[in-house]
Structures
1.
Amino acid sequence: MKKILEEQGKTVHCATGRMEDRTAVEKDLDEFKPEFVILAAGKTGRPNVDWCETNRPETLRANVIGTLNVVDCCYLRKIHVTNFATGCLYHYSDKHPVGGKPVTEEDPPDFFGSFYSVSKGYMDTLLLSYDNVCTLRLRMPISDDLSHRSLITKLSKYPKLINIPNSMTVLYDLLPVALDMTAKKTTGTFNFTNPGAISHNEVMDLYKKYLNPSHSWENFTPEDQAKILACGRSNTNLDVSKLLALYPDVPEIHVAMESCLQRMVANGVKHGDAT
């Protein structure tokens, strides 16, 4: 985002302190006097969200206290905030089954299987009280490289995968949209993924087709997966009708995913480049 903005001729300042430190947040805001604040910070844990289960105060300090600090300090200064949040607040259920009705922004969070998702669910609800925030619910973000934080890279390293369709966010398609929403001072909550849902198998089929023909994996059930994890994982399909009403050209996820792999090939990315 910083690179995109600078290419547009914008001046971008990065925070100098932790968002948990309200004094540091206020210092940055008063020194830089920004027109907009983009909040992409949060505690997801390393190596994964299992970390949050045994580090709950640290998780809350970032995902709730820290986020509220930034939003509230900006509110008092009449500064717009674009908050990159998560759509991992839901799971497939009788009301929203696989292949059924997707989850809308008005549906209350119903996935409490991980403390990470619980903390983000608190925040999602609390931010509804502020009128200076645009909350964007990303899911399983995918970049045009093999960064270790990209879903494609993560899946390529797992010997076993569950095969359930999910909403996903291809950053190439949606980061420019986020920045346009920021410039327009859009507010409210948006499911922020490409339309549709794609399975992990389908993603790896494309990875195998374009980057690593010898790649292989096995499938296992969510029940088997739960045996090796400290907490559950969200699997869901988000309704993006609200986003598409403003940005109808966001490509469907299968199209977007294949285009992403094609760009990676065109840019010289190879499967051994995973970091």
2.
Amino acid sequence: MKTEDIAKVCHEVNRAYCRAIGDDSQVAWESAEKWQKDSAVMGVELHLNNPDAGPSASHDSWMAQKIADGWVYGEEKDPELKLHPCLVPYEDLPTEQKAKDYIFAAVVKAIASIPAEKPLIKKVGFTPVKYIGKRETYKDGCYESGGEWERGQTLMIQSDKAKLLLNHPDVYALGEETGETGIEANETKPGDQEEVLQSARDFVNAMPRKQALAEYAKRNFNIEIAEGKLHEMKAQVISLIDKFGIE
């Protein structure tokens, strides 16, 4: 959970506690002032970075921040005048105010101890992709689809990868369902690295649009190439393939 999300939980727990002891001055997180949210975030960061810190550490950090922002002690809380009755040493706080720091620290510790959920792996469908390029055999060295075609062959490609391949209608076309097991992305067959590189070069040479070349360079090498003549842009991209290879 993000730090700000933990801060929101702590704020709402504190607001509920305040209401339980007759203090209705706390507003909901969405309506809280920036300084209130910043204060809660700093308190969360304190306990995340110092898991053994006690409740007094939370109060001391809060008070130091308040004083630095120009707040002073006052019998009644007044945000406009920056007055607060809790600007006293921790040991001088009333028991119900000390409880807030115990609760705050406990909430942060409890949330931090929750193991992160493993991301759900959604089953991706497969799309029939037919290779219509000029080579007799062709291995995808650009989008890591795992596909290796003979000319005119259709393979069942993972749909998110197929979408990228089909953006190049001069090389690929939508085929018909083959009934064969789909090829999982990145499950490439062993092969000669030079063949993979040559496939990438051929792929780039077949690109008919400047925008596609620019997007390819940005996506694969994180390099922006200047727009120029089509053949010059192709030469730039191929030089990147030769220099950095294809992962």
3.
Amino acid sequence: MELAIHHSTIYCYDSPAKQVGLLLRLQPSQLDSQTPGDWSVTINGKPVTSFTPNAFGDLEAFVQHRGAVARLEIVAEGTVSTRDAHGIVAGFRNELPLPVFLRQTELTCPDGAIKALALAAQGEDLISRLHALSDLVRDRVAYVTGATDHASTAAEALAQGEGVCQDHAHIFVSAARVLGAPARYVAGYLLADEGDLAQHETHGWAEAWVEGLGWIGFDATNGLCVTERYVRLCCGLDAHDAAPVRGAVTGTTAIAIQADVMIGEVAPVRPQQEQQQQ
């Protein structure tokens, strides 16, 4: 499947910022299940080309803007060819040791309810228990837009019984680590199925390590493992750690942020069309 993506993030400052620092993870990596095509990242129309692999194997770039600026528009766009690898995510350039992904954070710290949820996930082996865990998370936490915010923890979302994809992924990651499985938060894009609401923002899901298989992508929000409809951008210990865009600014007091994602399947070129193009 070939997907076309346009992702824009606009920062507007109430008074011109004196200096802005941006950490961008907006360049899809080459993996066994995805191959970026013509892809570009720009800030106010200026290309960003300084992407290099980080310790997690994801591509990132740090950009500094000095001088007064009232508006920054970050645009990532292009095409990515994907294939269904039955949930297995492989082909990373480099990675940190697996024990790092057993470390809980403030957003994923498990309470008694999350530990009980992990123990309730039954199965003959780890992969079966992780599938059961994904189903349990989806059953216990209804998807409700606006029910939580970026600071909500996994424990809070589970207690509330409502959340969004970030919360589903945080709960899964937290509980998977309780089971002894290294797990991490993943940010990227999802092409919604026909009939579903279009995705106008990045999507969040989880990856867990299963010995003998490697990293497996679990999307508890949709109750499945990742397919060719997913484009992976980056990962981290939690959503904050895996944010595609992070920024620091000096010289202003209020910031307005607008973000939008458009994604669609590229129609294959038929032989007759190809001849016409030639």
4.
Amino acid sequence: MISETTFSRGYSSFWEEYFPWLINYSKDINIDLTTRVFKSIGKSEDSGFRSINNIISFTHFKNTRLEKGFSLDSSFEEAKKIIVNFPRNNLLSYELTPFQKEIIEFQVEKLDNRYGTDCELYPNFPGCGILNSCSGDIFKNNTLVEVKAGERSILPADLKQLITYSAMNWLNSGSNYIINKIEVFNPRQGLVWNSDLHAFISTVSNISLEDVFDQICKYLTDLSDEIPV
């Protein structure tokens, strides 16, 4: 079985066949299709600690939605349980210093300003074939949001993740989500990109949304048939 990130970062022959314009479109996004909605943070921590701060930030955003004044130290302890599962995570050398806290709190503020408390975190989607069930980041107002808080551009893999979640949701007849739009938000840089889902698929794929989502499920199911029992 594989995760949605593994599927999004690999299996290039499938993605190239059914989404032939995705790579070029991702370049267009970074050139002139993103919108700056907040000022960027203007400072940067050691690159080895960036992903740690990003995970703590999202964890703390979740916790402060439930309880105002929730301790950042408590969110850090919770985030550790996620971070420790990543290889080369640099957790042993990380300290929650005032500088790290400033970066974390900046991101939490921007997440709160954009999405507030009336959003759902970790929307869950069923798996298909070789793909495990998976969770997105944020769902609000029929928009599925992927949060990417690095100091980098939006990557094709980020868009593939949103496609995968949307496909799994569309294929699930009992889904609670109606996804009309997709969005990538970077709270560190203050940048956002979003699009109507159908318009996006028609831009990057050579077949309709319904057909390409069916092809995703068929491909993942065929892969599972190839796994020895």
